Amino acid sequence: MGSNKMELSSEKIDLDSDEESPLTLSQSPGTKQSFQFEASHTSAPKSKSHVFRKLQYTALHSVNVVLFKAKINVLLPFGPLAVLLHYFTGRHGWVFFFSLLGITPLAERLGYATDIFLVVSAVGGLLNATFGNATEMIISIYALKNGMIRVVQQSLLGSILSNMLLVLGCAFFTGGIVHYPKVQRFNQTAAIVSSGLLLMAVMGILLPAVLHFTRTEVHFGKSEVALSRFSSCIMLVAYASYLFFQLKSHANLYDSVDEERENNNDDSDEEEVPEITMWESIAWLTILTIWVSVLSGYLVDAIEGASDSWNMPVSFISVILLPIVGNAAEHASAIMFAMKDKLDITLGVAIGSSTQISMFVIPFCVVVGWIMGQPMDLNFQLFETATLFITVLVVAFMLQEGTSNYFKGVMLILCYLIVAASFFLHVDKSDDD
Predict the structure, then answer these.
(1) Which intervals hold domain Sodium/calcium exchanger membrane region (predicted)?
(2) Bond prior to 181 in cis (omega within 30° of 0)
(3) Which CA distances in Å does 29 have to 12, 35, 77, 138?
(4) Rounded to the nearest 10 degrees, what angle do helices 362-372 and 188-213 cross at?
(5) Residue 427: CA atoms inside 13 Å, Cβ hemisphere, count?
(6) pLDDT at position 389, please?
(7) CB of 140 within 8 A of CB of 303?
(8) What is the pLDDT of residue 50?
């Protein structure tokens, strides 16, 4: 009798446990398979919806970071407005002005996406040369396609002058004021190497101009083009060697001179955590580059009309106004790093960008013009070449001590104002004139 009660109680326990967990204690293989089918059938939609919600959240987060988080993006609507003005009014002055405003945030966002991509992928110099100066390259190639060689030369020259005088000057000034009376220091060896490359670029640009203006060409009008193409290939080789020198063989020379900075690597890493992923940055680089290309077309087409309507020399627009837009990213980041007492990064942004343009972008445009059948050369004319030569000498003397203060920044800014005033009064003349 007692054994029957025990069997009944055990069966009751089994029944109860079966109700709670049919998969675990059920002896029927059909039931188990049925339950597994139902479980997989019900979990699949949940997994897909979860992935969809995650992708949707990631996309919204990326759009918010790139398009809405930066205050400078309030200028983005001026780009479409410039396109509308081009088709409905034909007023080149306003088209140029609004295109200029519309490209400014795009240039800054290109710089941001490039920085994120380089932080995540750690690729380095060549990508920085390609994407960091993407705005200048796009404008230059579009102008070169339309045969506007002087606009290409002057805009690239202006970008070099703007980076070395205005961007670096503002960075030295703000950094010196914030950290006064401390003397800020940077890697002197890296600065000397960059100065040497800039002087080499001056040599490549100076000799075709001297050959032309001394009338010592073997074939007038052709020898300077041939020399420019040969020198451009040499400069590209030199820049590739510089990348190998900087990133591989002598990377230790580019270490920061601030020991406290090295001791606080953990804090700096926490501050530099990227807000978007590498693939998101690649997608944004593609989108922004396409939109910059579109606006660059309207900008270049309106330059001459803007010069006539504003009664302003084309050289001033090309050398002063266009580079300010193209260097928006460099300007903001150089000042920010100088205020954080990271002058090595500041020099990498300002002087590094000038080196990239002079040793990579300019020779690259000469080669592209060669392929397009456009006689793009390194003869930047006597006035522009002399300005570049003097500017490189001034900056080289400023960097030779490896120190910075606010007074050096003031001097560089004042030098830039002199250059701006000179180009405002400068008008290109033909060889016959």
Answers:
(1) 94-247, 281-423
(2) yes
(3) 22, 10, 65, 67
(4) 40
(5) 7
(6) 94
(7) no
(8) 57
User: Both tokens of residue 260?
Assistant: 């406290």
Asked if 99 and 82 count as a contact pair (C-beta separation under 8 A), the reply is yes
pTM exceeds cut of 0.90: no
Residues 231/158/103/140 CA torsion (nearest 10 deg): -30
φ and ψ of 403, to 5 deg: -130, 165
For the segment 272-313, what is each residue's pLDDT rounded down to a tens digit? Answer: 566 777 777 778 878 887 888 788 778 888 888 888 888 888
Type and span of the H or E element at 344: helix 343-356
Q: How far is CA 353 from the centre of its chain?
A: 9
Listed range (113-117, 138-142, 375-379, 388-392) with the worst mean pLDDT: 113-117
List of residues 6+ apart from 189 with CB closer than 8 A: 253
pLDDT for residue 19 is more than 50: no
CA–CA distance, 366 with 360 (Å, rounded to integer): 10
- Residue with the two structure tokens 């033909």: 430
Strand, coil or helix: what is 146? coil
pLDDT tens digits, residue range 210-260?
988 888 888 877 888 999 999 999 999 999 998 888 877 777 766 655 544
CA–CA dist 381, 208 (Å, integer) = 9
CA distance 186 to 347: 8
Q: What stretches of 250-327 show up as alpha helix (H) in DSSP?
A: 259-263, 265-271, 278-301, 303-310, 314-316, 322-326
